[in-house]
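Cross-posted from the bioinformatics board.
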Amino acid sequence: MLGIDDPQIWLAYILCFVSAIGCIIYGALKWNDDSDDGEVN
Amino acid sequence: MALSTPVLGVIILIYLMVIFYLGWLGYKKTKETEDYMVAGRQIHPYILALSYGATFISTSAIIGFGGAAGALGMGLLWLAFMNIFVGIFIAFVLFGSRTRRMGLNLNAVTFPELLGKRFQSRFIQGFSGALIGIFMPLYAGIVLIGGARFLESTLNINYDIAVLILTVIVAAYVITGGLIAVMYTDALQGTLMFIGMAFLLVFTYIKMGGVTAAHSALSAMSDLVPESLTAGGHLGWTAMPAFGSPIWWTMVSTLVLGVGVGVVAQPQLAVRFMTVKNDTALNRAVLVGGPFILMMTGVAFTVGALSNAYFYQTVGKISVVVAGGNTDLIMPEFINSAMPSTFVVLFMLTLLAAAMSTLSSQFHTMGTSIGHDFYREFIKKGELGQTINITRAAIAFTILASVVLAYILPISIIARATAIFFGLCAAAFLPMYTGALFWKRMTREGAIASLIVGTFSSLFWLAFVHKSEAVPLGISKAIFGVDTILSGTWTVVDPILVATPIAFVVAIIVSLMTKPTPQEHLDKCYK
């Protein structure tokens, strides 16, 4: 896959993108979620 | 270098003027102790994310680890994955939220203070502060050397003057503007780093004819791996090293696990969770932090490995050979020969920004650890007022220590500084920090035991067993007459993999054997 034969490497390559995209989705979903926020007064 | 020195000089001058402006803003906004120590707990999520990322990623992560990928291959992408998943997601979502709340509940302004107050122990705060104050200058030393070497080669100035310039500039805004100045400048530096690395990735793939073509070219070169590396288990730049081989152990234990997990217990990063006003800010920061780290280590490791294919196609040699055997030169050689000259300027700024952003946070953390945690809270039992001024003096003192270390220690030891510091932090702090946040049954005695056992087992392993540190340190040789007291695979297993589990076990056993923390105090911590 992607010119890389060893599955241990292309898995890492893909996981880098998946985890970064996961961070984006998580941040976007929680963007305005201020329930139980424990804010500083 | 292809670019004229005056042009680069002017660009660096403009950059430094903006840095000073941001430093001045920090100075103006700093009125209370909380402002100086934790940026008033009012930092914007974008600034938090970039500041965390830019502090996390130093020049050595790009040049040193990128060069390591040039030698060892794309297996290092597991570290990039760990950096994003553990270093950002787990750190912010699990540790960040609880750190912020507990820091606020206990009115803690530093990482050692958070631990000390959670376990009601000045010893924990003082010992942790001293540990950071003693070992972080070593880590700051390597970043300082990297930054100064950059100034030396790009501006053609004397190395000693480069060290002086870099130290004075960073010290000036850290001492006057505290953490606000550090984080504002980090955000600018992080932005420059992001742009620089994004260009690097795109240019590299274009130059190599696309993503798949570039990887295929590299995969086809596996028979070109030098014999010295194949003997250690190297199977090619797009393959993991042979399972259980020395290179596999180095990659998995020191790089992927050591640096990948160690980051969670880094004091200069953990303190940043206390700089925002609510959990929403932490969640928003995850959105920026994940892609930022992908662009840093993900790109550095990919490009580092791909440089082999580029050099093979252009000069018929692999990267390590082009760099004359010094892996630290792989990335600079590749950038200088493969990238357009205008990009070289941008990339020089990227590297300067990476060095300065890490250095500024190190200076701030060392100063607060010695000035506030060790001297004011532990030695003086919190009697003295004037936290900011004591911390300022301590920052100046620890900076001096870093500069002196950068001069007197041999490069073979300094080169291991990042790994030593990360490993030590993981063993000393991770069990205690995890317990402080997630395990109410953890007691003061359990925390102290894990701190002591973690610290000394880590130091013991690196001085007497782990070859990479034990040989240059020479302590084992001096006492026992042998380079390492164990042999075989043990000598390539990183201290973090031995000391951290021991410290965790000690923390659990001692906690269960001692009297639980009073409920009243726990209610205050976890409210």
